[in-house]
């Protein structure tokens, strides 16, 4: 008998089975979006701060190469972020904001996981994200 846990057994229900799906920010998660190398540098700092389990971080593989840090619902609007960090929440815009979420495995281009959600880190900790932003030059 195989006692391994299937990836779907622990994946949040907002992670699609295949490809990628747009999810409404503020429902399952809020997001903070940071562009390019700066987003990558912050993701590295966050990974160091969390013993390499920072929670879900999605990145775009083309264009501006945005990095999306997925926070608990409501967390993005509770904080003041630097001007280069765009927040996506149910109450941050006059219109609905959607964030692309890739499947855990398979073809998900143009999105990919920089860091997967885990049972211990189903969301990025907003306090640690603020700390990582402050540590990044």
Summarize the structure in words.
With 137 residues, the protein is an alpha+beta fold. The chain has one domain. Helix content is 20%, strand content 23%. The chain is built from three helices and seven strands, in the order H-E-E-H-E-E-E-E-E-H.
Shape: globular
- How many helices in DSSP terms? 3
Number of strands: 7
Question: How many structural domains can be distinguished in the coordinates?
Answer: 1
Strand content: 15-25%
Rg from Cα: 14 Å
Low-pLDDT parts are 1-7
Which percent bin holds the helix content? Answer: 10-25%
- Class inferred from helices and paired strands: alpha+beta
Strand order of the largest sheet: 5-2-4-3-7
Please, what is the average pLDDT? 91
**SSE topology string:** HEEHEEEEEH
Features:
alpha+beta, 137 residues
Topology:
Blueprint (H helix, E strand, L loop, with lengths): L6 H4 L9 E5 L5 E5 L1 H14 L7 E4 L6 E5 L14 E3 L9 E5 L8 E5 L10 H10 L2
Antiparallel strand pairs: 1-6, 2-4, 2-5, 3-4, 3-7
Helix pairs in contact: 2-3
Summarize the structure.
The protein has 137 residues and is α+β, with helices and mostly antiparallel strands. It has three helices and seven strands, in the order αββαβββββα.
